[in-house]
Amino acid sequence: MSRPDPRTPALIDIGANLAHDSFDHDRHEVLARAAEAGVSRIVITGSCASSSHAALELARTRPGELFSTAGVHPHHAKDWAAADPDWVRSLAANPEVVAIGECGLDFYRNFSSPEDQERAFRAQLELAVETALPVFLHQRDAHERFRAILADYVDKLPRAVAHCFTGNQRELDDYLDMGLYIGITGWICDERRGHHLREVVPMIPGDRLLLETDSPYLLPRDIDPKPTSRRNEPMYLLHVAESVAQCTGESLEEMADRTTRNAGRFFSIT
Fold first, then answer.
1. Looking at residue 191, what is its pLDDT?
2. Closest by CA position to 36, among listed 266, 241, 234, 187
3. What is the pLDDT of residues 10-66, one digit of tens each?
4. In Å, what is the CA distance from 247 to each residue of 238, 251, 259, 261?
5. If we measure between CA atoms, which residue out of 74, 11, 21 comes closest to residue 43?
6. Which phi and psi (to 5°) does residue 67 adopt?
7. Do the Cβ atoms of 16 and 45 come closer than 8 Å?
8. Which residues make beta-bridge pairs with 105?
9. CB count, 10 Å around CB of 123?
10. CA proximity to 175, closest of 195, 190, 192, 160
11. Based on C-alpha coordinates, what's the Rg of the chain?
12. Where are the alpha helices (DSSP H) in the chain?
């Protein structure tokens, strides 16, 4: 990555799907723009076997700047097989891999059956316990089952983050009671469906807030001027940080410093 402006606060994007094919033609430029915006480190999300392997290979190209996760998204849970724990363990043994996941439940789309999702979710929670790695969690329209399953493992997990949190105060309280970190994306910038997040974000304890873009998804809708492309990318994490800082009453510098320290602690990266 190129050197950022020294006046730009350092940020860590805890979730970017940089192995996505939409970045194939300009990934180097995307990383350069991220660095210029102060995004000094990025955790590349793995969501299936192929993307988890690709995420690790990308992380290896920029040691100390890029990291990755290894796991199977609930959309792909129907493909979870008896041999899958082997490749997850193998990837998890690499120092660039800093979390298990993205895993969890998604009853909104149900691309995999609820039964398959729960089976894959439990298997990956067991792997997180076994490998002593944090877990990168996904939940949509499945709060009660998600919470019930997670409760069986949470005391044995080193750390866990509710990635791309979009829930209400009750869901937030449940996750905080379980000790989870909370990941906030550009969803908070969406005037159609993210307004409630502006009210609950100030309730997140200072040491458990994390920031992410979920690139190439969830481009912040209130960027002005609007980008010519709808593709999100890590450089827009600065915009997310500004929006969250407005909600909490902090300066951008305070928000960046706090969430960067949180992310470093969560993933054990320096």
1. 84
2. 234
3. 999 999 999 999 999 999 999 999 999 999 999 999 999 999 999 999 999 999 999
4. 15, 10, 14, 19
5. 11
6. -135, 175
7. yes
8. 139
9. 18
10. 160
11. 17
12. 27-36, 49-61, 84-92, 114-131, 143-151, 169-177, 195-200, 237-248, 252-267
- How confident is the model over 164-223, as pLDDT tens digits? 999 999 999 999 999 999 999 999 998 888 889 999 999 999 999 999 999 999 999 999
* Ramachandran angles phi, psi of 100, nearest 5°: -95, 135
Mean pLDDT of 75-83: 95
Q: Position of tokens 């979009």?
A: 166
Question: Would the pLDDT of 259 be above 70?
Answer: yes
The answer for residues whose C-beta is within 8 angstroms of residue 123's C-beta and 6 or more apart is 80, 84, 85
How many other CB atoms sit within 10 Å of the CB of residue 163?
A: 27
Q: Which amino acid is at 136?
A: F
HSE of 244, CA atoms in CB hemisphere, 13 A: 30
User: What's the Cα-to-Cα distance from 78 to each of 54, 81, 105, rounded to whole Å?
Assistant: 21, 8, 12
Cis geometry, peptide bond prior to residue 202 (ω within 30 degrees of 0) = no
Specify the pLDDT at position 1.
46
What domains appear along the chain, each with residue ranges and CATH number? 11-267 (3.20.20.140)
**227-253 residues labelled b (16+ CB within 10 A) or e (exposed):** eeeebbbbbbbbbbbebbbebbebebe
- Which positions ≥6 away from 170 have C-beta within 8 Å? none
The stretch 211-238 carries a mean pLDDT of: 96
Q: Which two tokens stand for residue 1?
A: 């990555």
Q: Please answer whether residues 5 and 207 qualify as being in contact, where contact means their C-beta atoms are separated by less than 8 angstroms.
A: no
Q: State which amino acid sits at residue 207.
A: D
**Alpha-carbon span 88 to 259, nearest angstrom:** 28
pTM beyond 0.70: the answer is yes
